[in-house]
Amino acid sequence: MAGGRSRWTATLVAVVVVLGWLVVGGLAGPYSGKLGDVATNDNAAFLPADAEATRAQDLAAGFVERETTPALVVYERASGITPADQERIRAEAARFAHLPGVVGPLPPPIVSQDRQAVQVIVPIDAAEGEQIGAVVDQLRDIAGADRDGLTVDVAGPAGLLADLIEVFTAIDGPLLLVTLVVVLVILLIVYRSPVLWVFPLLAAGMSYSLASLVVYLLAKNDVVKLNGQAQGILTVLVFGAGTDYALLLIARYREELHRHERPWDAMRAAWKGAAPAIIASGATVIVSLLCLLLSSLNSNRALGPVSAVGIAATLLVMLTFLPALLMLGGRWAFWPRRPRLDHADPRTEHGIWGRIAGFVARRARTVWIVTAVVLAALALGVTQLGATTLGQSDLFTQRTDSVAGQEVIARHYPAGTGSPATIFTNQAAAEQVARVAQGVPGVSSVQPFSRQGPTGSPEVVDGRVQLQATLADPPDSNGAEHALRELRVAVHRVPGADAVIGGFTAINVDTADASTRDRNVIIPVVLLVIAVILALLLRALLAPVLLIATVVLSFLATLGLCALIFRYVLDFPGVDQSFPLFAFVFLVALGIDYNIFLMSRVREESVRRGTRAGVLTGLAVTGGVITSAGIVLAATFSALAVLPLVVLVELGVAVAAGVLLDTIVVRSLLVPALAYDIGPKVWWPGRLSRTNRNGDRAGTEADRAR
């Protein structure tokens, strides 16, 4: 940190760095609680500009004075709606119409054929944006609670959006608190010190404050579109990755304190030894996340820069603020297990990992073959994954008001009532398009749009007519999406129609298609980027290829394991289309971190001892810290389980399971066993691949003996 300068100069520099960061933290800290103010959760705004649903939205603007998002207030009485119920519903509908943000006049209440339910469609001005949630809250206040056997729920797109907004606005507090507690508990267990845990936790908090400030400014100035999902991931990513980097630096600092009398000399050596691996790791994650900019979905494009900002802020803090704190703490920071100046071999502090290294050396080929076969067997579970678009009733881990209302609608009406597919077609072909659409399986009815209501003449705008196709299945179900795809195929075939289909279901379909395209484009790019970074770091080509192969195998095994967990343990119906891409980016980018930590140390030791001895030493001295880092990262992502959203719970489970699998199996057994078995050639075509030191010759003789 301070080179060969005097003790007081080094101390002064450390004090200035710490005080400077504390000032930054004081200025940036309040913004961690303001991210929700600049977040948006309007899924339609995230569609690519060339999507059919986006073009339909543009056409829809010409048919109405104001674009609306419908809320569906649905009443149900199992014994049948009474006259008193109808009077209450009419009175409440009149109050709905006068609410700010509601576009009147409201359509008449719709009584179900079995006369057990009544539905009131309340169009809400789409310009309200996030305030749609506040309008829905007022609808729910007016409708009141269930009483005398009459139930009432607010569903539809606006009801769903309101429930999502409620979930995301609650992210800041509970998620941050759970993450802090998880990290604190693990640090206390790892360090068994009443002092040392303060340093990484304080540095992680500083990283989060800085990242929050930058993300807030970017979102406020419309550089990125922050949503609740990205906001939640930012929290756990910064604390998880930040604690990982801190553990690696602190472990190296402890080693160097055994070799150097003065803490600043020890920190300088530790920084030089650990910083390249930390920087390479952070760069890998940042570049991998920025690959999401290639996505056609704005939501994915936002997640990449937001998460990359978090990692960049974490790198900056962990390589400046944390070293200064540790240097000021000196050996006392490790109390009561203070490292002494004894020039001890670092392997002496890692007995259990030394024994694991010995086991790998004795059975290298058997170890990597068996672990590879086990991972491949787990990967077979991918066939059970069932990637799909989660329906509204499957989106939450708890039963929300919008879910309950949609279930009532599905029982008593064509489930797509209130959220029809909208067909825009040339006026001359409108009747033929309507007949064709009516004949599509899964379409209940087709009606032309008219400002005068169902009996009025169809509205014509720029030579186009709007048709509303009510689907038989709930608008967010697989059945509705299948029907919409069939509907598009059918109406697109009508000559001269130039038909365009939009609506709630169309948005889901186009989002799913864009997610599939993103997965096919981004995953190969991420792998290529990681390969280049590893080749530069390790100065080899074979080692990066092997490392990427092990991480991809670990990723597939994780997906297979998660498929079994989701289906048979958590009873989830499937995963969202975006899940494989998000899981890949986070698992591969973060999983490769641990291989970077391991192999950069292995290479450092291989230069001095030979490749096989370097593998064993690298495994022994990094095993404990990397495993601890993996546990911390897994635990922090597990904190996503406190949020009542299936998508985030699944991502948290996937990252946690994948990281544990990677640290315990891949990095501890598969990679070192493979590298040990291959020997110096693992560094091909680098110069290190042509050296054959004593450790390598001993390993070769042992191979012959086997």
TrEMBL record:
The record's subcellular locations are: Cell membrane
Question: Which SUPFAM superfamilies would you find in this protein's record?
Answer: Multidrug efflux transporter AcrB transmembrane domain
Q: What does the record say about its membrane topology?
A: Multi-pass membrane protein
Q: Which residues cross the membrane?
A: 173-191, 198-219, 231-253, 274-295, 307-328, 367-387, 521-538, 545-569, 581-602, 614-635, 641-661
| InterPro entries, A to Z | MMPL_dom, Mycobact_MmpL, SSD
Q: Which UniProt keywords apply?
A: Cell membrane, Membrane, Transmembrane, Transmembrane helix
Matching entries from PROSITE patterns are given as:
SSD (PS50156)
Give the chief site where it resides.
Answer: membrane
Q: Domain SSD, which positions?
A: 233-328, 548-676
Q: Which Gene3D superfamilies match?
A: Multidrug efflux transporter AcrB transmembrane domain
Family as reported in the entry's similarity comment = Belongs to the resistance-nodulation-cell division (RND) (TC 2.A.6) family. MmpL subfamily.
Give the protein's recorded name: MMPL family transporter
Please report the organism this UniProt entry assigns to the protein. Answer: Micromonospora halotolerans
